[in-house]
Amino acid sequence: MGRLAAASLVGTAIEFFDFFVYGTTAALVLGPLFFPAFSPLAGTLAAFGTFAAGFLARPLGSVLFGHVGDRYGRRPVLFVSLLLTGCATVAVGCVPTYATLGTAAPVLLLALRFLQGLGLGGEWGGAVLLTAEHAPEHRRALWSSFPQVGPAIGFLLANGVMLALTAGLSDAEFRAWGWRVPFWAAGLLAVGGLLLRSSLAETPQFEELSASGRRAGAPLAEVVRDHWRLVLLTAGALAVGYAVFYTVSTWALAYGTERLEVSSTVMLVCVMAAVAVMGAATPFAALLGDRWGRRPLCLAGCAASALWMFPMVALLHTARPLLMFLGFLGSLLAFITMFAVIAAYLPELYEPRVRCTGAAVGYNLAGVLGGALTPVVATTLSDGGSGPPWGVAAYLTLVALLSLGCFALLPETLPGRAGRPAPEPAAV
Q1: 122 and 76 in contact (C-beta within 8 Å)?
Q2: Band of pLDDT at residue 395, cut at 50, 70 and 90
Q3: Quick one: pLDDT at residue 420?
Q4: Which of 136, 176, 240, 313 could bond 400 through an S-S bridge, CB–CB 3.0 to 4.6 Å?
Q5: 73 φ, ψ to 5°?
Q6: Which residues neighbour 416 within 8 Å (Cβ) at sequence distance 6 or greater?
Q7: 0.85 cut: is pTM over it?
Q8: Which residues contact 370 (CB under 8 A, 6 or more apart)?
Q9: 346 with 363: CB under 8 angstroms?
Q10: Residue 16 predicted with pLDDT over 80
Q11: CA-CA distance, 242 to 245, in Å (whole number)?
Q12: Sign of the torsion formed by the C-alpha atoms of 368, 373, 378 and 381
């Protein structure tokens, strides 16, 4: 289990490194480089629009790779998704800017961001099923939480590199070539991840399905026909997690540097410190999920998010590093209270024959609902006025309440506490 968990963690860390590098770059430099004819606000919105394209591609990636995972095995998903995301990320670092290529530059940027999202949409399902379907029943949430630590590590790597570049280069050097370095580094990370995953075994549950001839012929059709309500509920339930995380990790960077005139270095350090604590807390939250259940932690995380959004915005608006850090930290701890157990919860909600498709589609649809447009909406709501952007806090609170209602309609799946049985180890 240690080797499997490490392989899943490293893979998700690499893929989210690729994804987060783009988000940070969009917040800091992509607007003026690829949309120079726009005003600063419009340029930031346009850059966040290309950022959103990655989220829109993720459900398509979950359908494509979910079909592969349910028909041909979880293992192939891990290789192809990582290869696709890595190649697309390296290519982003090679795209000429608007000054060189004209309108073709943002079009290429959009296409490559779409391919990034396609690969990431498949990565999550394969990584979590690799651990969830190997893990012992009483520690499934713990072992499945390791892929959920990957995004925190990917974020820290991405922003650590970005922080070093912004601190060590002049603004002109960073805009000329420095922002490309993290995208090129993604190629080396992808090669390392592929080598690590080369010796992984297929999950026992898929091997059992394959041997018995019970693999789904058309996984997506089966999910839509038999589990559409579950997919919609899980998408709505997880939307708040995406909204909160990308508000902190993407919109807040742009707001702090552009509106509050805080240096990008200070903003990155505040966000990175909060993400580091969140990553360290993930296994402990997962242990609580193995002890008390998945659903109670998800409800608690939603409620905490709803209560914390107004204080978070107020603390951000102070522009004082310690207070901004505390605002970010409270938001991310509420987020991880939910997402530490999600890698066990979602697979348990679906029967094994359609698990890769069902869990991944619900998870990535939530990304569209909560993550794709949140930086755009938050930037729009925070435009104008000198006081704290209360509209952003109100928007996030409404999303949290929507997710709370969806979680309330989902059943518990902790073995021994589930509402009704299903084929082992699924609980519903």
Answers
A1: no
A2: very high
A3: 41
A4: 240
A5: 125, 155
A6: none
A7: no
A8: 238, 239, 240, 241, 242, 243, 244, 246, 399
A9: yes
A10: no
A11: 5
A12: negative
- pLDDT tens figures, 315-330: 999 999 999 999 999 9
Averaged pLDDT, 197-226 = 83
What length does the chain have? 428
The string of DSSP codes covering 363-403 is HHHHIIIIIISHHHHHHHHTSS-SS--HHHHHHHHHHHHHH
What SS3 class is residue 174?
A: helix
Q: Are the C-beta atoms of 207 and 339 separated by less than 8 Å?
A: no
Cα separation values, 256 from 317, 373, 393, 404, Å:
8, 19, 15, 29
164-191 pLDDT per residue, tens = 888 888 888 888 888 899 888 888 888 8
SS3 category, 101: helix
> Distance between the two ends of the chain, CA-based, in angstroms?
25
Task: Give the HSE-up count for residue 258: Cα atoms under 13 Å, Cβ half-sphere.
Answer: 23
Q: Rounded CA gap, 256 and 315, in Å?
A: 12
- Record the tokens describing residue 231, joined without a space: 């997919």
